[in-house]
Amino acid sequence: MKYNDTMTVLEHIAELRKRILLVAAVFILSMIAGLIAAPYVLTLLKLHSPAFQVTWNVFSPWDGLRIYMSIGIVLSLLPTLPFALYQTWLFVNQGLSGREQKAALRFVPFSAICFIIGVAFAYFVVFPMSLAFTTGINSQMNLVETYGVSQYFGSCSVSSSRYPSPSSCRLLCYS
Q1: pTM, entire model
Q2: CA 144, CA 3: separation in Å to the nearest integer?
């Protein structure tokens, strides 16, 4: 580590402020794009199993807006989280030795891949299994199922969050 390139506390705070503002700017821009893409993503989600088997209802005037905003936020987090991690790396990188930098860089791609695999596993494996399980219980009890869009996405969040995965469906189906 080079000690002649040290920064004062105020310089560190200014550097951190700059990085936080960059992350906020990326979040706002991606939120705009996410809100534009949200109806298309919702349509895509409706076409995939098990969502195409369910008639979606709204039970509150705010359900549609809440789901629209939730999908927009999740879509905005897709580019923002990697960018925020990169900005964090640039901030922390200055204080690490060359050996520490190489060791930390080995884990960055692996963690991104694990995140994507975790979200896909939660939505495509865990959520259909939990929905089939609860639907089976309801049919054994002769109950009529009526799903609201909020309950559908809420059940995606609840069923996937029970498993010890840092990449849960809560990020995909934010409720």
Answers
A1: 0.68
A2: 69
